[in-house]
UniProtKB/TrEMBL annotation:
EC number: 6.2.-.-
Record-annotated active site: 23, 41
UniProt keyword list: Hydrolase, Ligase, Metal-binding, Zinc, Zinc-finger
Domain YrdC-like: 204-389
Lineage: Bacteria, Bacillati, Actinomycetota, Actinomycetes, Streptosporangiales
Family of the protein in this entry: Belongs to the carbamoyltransferase HypF family.
Acylphosphatase-like domain: residues covered: 8-94
PROSITE patterns xrefs: ACYLPHOSPHATASE_1 (PS00150), ACYLPHOSPHATASE_3 (PS51160), YRDC (PS51163)
GO molecular function list: acylphosphatase activity; carboxyl- or carbamoyltransferase activity; double-stranded RNA binding; ligase activity; zinc ion binding
Organism for this UniProt entry: Nonomuraea wenchangensis
Top-level enzyme category: ligase
Metabolic or biological pathway: Protein modification; [NiFe] hydrogenase maturation
Protein name per the record: Carbamoyltransferase
Pfam families reported in the protein's UniProt record: Acylphosphatase, HypF_C, HypF_C_2, Sua5_yciO_yrdC, zf-HYPF
């Protein structure tokens, strides 16, 4: 209440402050300090009017940042004076509609908190075994939001009217469900149902029915937060094999859900950093070294040293894990190369030939979101796939976007990005844009992001490759300025954006393929770059790709191209040539003639060639498989390194053929694949470090940015990083944004903005 020294202030709080219990938190903070007034949501964030003694108001406003809820991210608090009105008490007021230049932020989905989990397992609680328990600290957010401000009416929970009990909790400032928009209970909220493969309801408790199906070796489609997953028991080799066959996923590893952290520890070796990621609110899949005696079928992750593990992140997953008391595979509900199914009718149609039964619920999913994938590198998180639990949290950058930007991303592992103010919103993982279904998911996602973040793109950035569907989408936009961004420049720019560094730097961009400015396919690039432009200062030696895309699917073709480059007709007898003796001469002639054999400097294709020569992998079932299996074969005790020359010039060239030739010599001498893999990794890393040193001496630059999907290879990343640190370079590596194509849209966005500022 107003006193003689009281004053009143208007406060605006911007950031991730909707859907995270921020208004209830403000109410509690106001009560603790004896402040009167009100708080509400609007499309710009949270607005507050507060009245009290000056010192009290100062403490209150400081607490808005210092004591914020765990899921909140306060970007800015602005305060202006107002006239005291002498009111009593503090309340939440109705949200305000309207246009705000910066828009509000939307919280990512959060895993079930300890308090809700305790209720779930308490026979005396009214939410005992209720699969949709949530509160202000956990539960669905982004995947159910239909608009802003974030209120129940702007979520798919608008389909469910709160009962009297939930309404009391929702309106009680002392309750942890105070203004929790998805609040519900068995009396008023979503419900589970189990359907057979024929679409008919199955009698009995749905969780129990699904558990029995899994124990019988069946494949079950489970509706989660962001879409449907396909599940089988991880130890059931026959069920895993059937899942691979039906899903048409020959070899890409599956993720495994463990009941708890202790159970996860029986599957993989968890260090403290990995366990912290595994048990955190985001609940991603965590890649960690697989234990030799892990109770999972070999087909779960064939040929992989690491295994992706996750913990339950919804009450439904907890209930199923408790009932099974065993790890189960949880993989996206789709055929390979299709987007995850998330609409019920569509799931029943698309998954009809894959699943033997469905565990469904009637809460609509507005935005699909696959599971996120992370690994630990040097004690820090390295995001490989950024999706559920991470998107759409903003990535703040120190440079403003003069006009709203849409960046359309790459063809593979696509994400897009919308940006305005000083914030970039990188989308959830969309997938490979190689089908109508995925392109539709991409387009729907763009429209959803533009709507909820209030972005009307004036600038649209895209890759230079004219055949990418993301490029075609950009060119179909009307009334916008188009900016093409070279693929590897975008990789380096994404790393710079993550670190708030404007350049210039020496950028090392190693990946599979990206169209270069000279019309060839780049992928092993050393750039001198800032956000505006770049210069190709060096690259891996280029070689033909015999058969174009066929060389990606069949790494032995890259081995043939490299070995012909090195030895010509004097090729020594090698197992890889013998294995493909009928096709080898045809492929060699194709490469020599340049017939459907584009030149490439790709690091990914170099890994493919060495993997084939070493006998690790001749033909792949998924992108990057040969390189990943070569990394998995590295003998950690091997200290040797293949030498590779630097060919001086503009640009500088790393003689990658030296590495290939040395690997071939070792194969001929009978050296095992583990030692060959180690020597190759160490030799390539040493060559990169020497090349960067030469470029540093020529440019005076002492900061290096490492990006591109090849730097998801922890062995290579560690070797390059150690070498550059010994040379006293400052090295920027990815953490929050994927180094692969899943982060490229962020780079496109900041490059477009930098050019727009000019």
């Amino acid at each position: 209440m107003s006193g003689t020294g009281a004053r009143r202030i208007r406060v605006r709080v911007e950031g991730l402050v909707q859907g995270v219990g921020f208004r209830p938190f403000v109410c509690g903070l106001a009560g603790a300090y004896g402040v009167s007034g009100f708080v509400g949501n609007d499309p710009g964030g949270v607005f507050i009017e507060a009245e009290g003694e000056p010192a009290t108001l100062d403490a209150f406003t400081a607490g808005l940042t210092g004591q914020a809820p765990p899921l909140a991210l306060v970007e800015r608090v602005s305060v202006e004076p107002a006239e005291p009105v002498g009111e009593s008490g503090f309340r939440i007021v109705a949200s305000r509609q309207g246009e705000f230049p910066d828009g509000a932020l939307v919280s990512p989905d959060a895993g079930t908190c300890a308090a809700c989990l305790s209720e779930l397992r308490d026979p005396g609680d009214r939410r005992h075994r209720y699969p949709f328990a949530n509160c202000t600290d956990c539960g669905p957010r982004f995947t159910i939001v239909t608009g802003v401000p974030y209120d129940r009416c702007a979520t798919t929970m608008a389909d469910f009217e709160m009962c009297a009990g939930c309404a009391r909790e929702y309106g009680d400032p002392g309750d942890r469900r105070f203004h929790a928009q998805p609040v519900c209970c068995p009396a008023c909220g979503p419900a589970l149902r189990a359907l057979g493969a024929d679409g008919r309801p199955a009698a009995g408790d749905p969780v129990e029915v699904a558990a029995r199906w899994l124990e019988a070796g069946r494949i079950v489609a489970i509706k989660g937060l962001g879409g449907y997953h396909l599940a089988v028991l991880a130890a059931d080799g026959s069920a895993v094999a059937a899942l691979r066959a039906r899903k048409r996923r020959e070899s890409r590893p599956f993720a495994v859900l463990a009941p708890d952290a202790a159970a996860a520890g029986t599957l993989v070796h968890l260090d403290p950093a990995a366990e912290l990621l595994l048990t955190g609110a985001r609940r991603p899949i965590v890649l960690a070294p697989r234990r030799r005696d892990a109770p999972v079928a070999d087909l779960v992750a064939p040929g992989a040293r690491d295994l992706g593990v996750m913990l339950p992140y919804t009450p439904l997953h907890h209930l199923l894990a408790d009932r099974l008391a065993a790890p189960y595979v949880l993989t996206s509900g789709n055929l390979t190369d299709e987007p995850i199914a998330y609409r019920d009718e569509e799931a029943l149609r698309r998954l009809a030939g894959l699943a033997d039964g469905f565990l469904m619920h009637d809460r609509r999913i507005e935005a699909p979101a696959d599971d996120s994938l992370v690994r630990v590198f040097r004690g820090r998180e390295l995001v490989v796939r950024r999706s559920r639990g991470y998107a759409p949290a903003p990535i703040g950058v120190p440079w403003p976007f003069p006009r709203p930007v849409l960046a359309c991303g790459a063809q593979l592992k696509n994400t897009f990005c919308v940006a305005r103010g000083n914030q970039a919103f990188l989308s959830q993982h969309i997938g490979d844009l190689e089908s109508y279904e995925t392109l539709r998911s991409f387009a729907e996602g763009v429209e959803h992001f533009c709507r909820i973040f209030g972005v009307r793109p004036a600038v649209v950035a895209h890759d230079l490759h004219p055949e990418y569907l993301s490029t075609a989408y950009a060119r179909d936009r009307e009334g916008v300025d188009l900016i093409g961004v070279q693929h590897h420049h975008a990789h380096i720019a994404s790393c710079l954006a993550e670190h708030g560094h404007g350049g210039p730097v020496i950028g090392v961009a190693f990946d599979g393929l990206g169209l270069g400015e000279d019309g060839t396919l780049w992928g092993g690039e050393l750039l001198v770059a800032d956000l505006v432009s770049f210069r190709r200062a060096g690259h891996l030696e280029a070689v033909p790709m015999p058969g174009g895309a066929a060389a990606v699917r069949q790494p032995w073709r890259m081995a043939a191209a490299w070995l012909d480059r090195i030895h010509g007709d004097a090729l020594p007898g090698l197992p890889v040539a013998e294995r493909h003796r009928e096709q080898w001469p045809v492929v060699v002639r194709m490469a020599r003639a340049g017939l459907n054999s584009p030149l490439t400097s790709s690091a990914g294709r170099l890994f493919d060639a060495v993997a084939a020569i070493a006998g690790v992998r001749d033909v792949i079932g998924h992108e990057g498989q040969a390189a990943a299996e070569l990394e998995a074969r590295v003998d950690p005790g091997e200290r040797g390194a293949y030498p590779a020359r630097l060919i001086e010039g503009e640009p500088l060239v790393i003689a990658a053929g030296d590495l290939v030739g040395a690997a071939a010599e070792d194969v001929a001498a009978g050296v095992d694949a583990g030692r060959i893999a180690a020597r190759f990794h160490r030799g390539l890393a040493a060559a990169v470090v020497r090349a960067v040193r030469v470029l540093g001496e020529g440019t005076g630059l002492r900061t290096v940015a490492l990006s591109g999907g090849v730097f998801q290879n922890a062995v290579l990343l560690e070797a390059v990083l150690c070498g550059l640190e010994r040379e006293r370079f400052t090295v920027l590596v990815h953490s929050r944004v994927p180094p692969g194509d899943g982060g490229i849209a962020l780079g496109q966005a900041v490059v477009a903005a930098a050019n727009d500022r000019r």
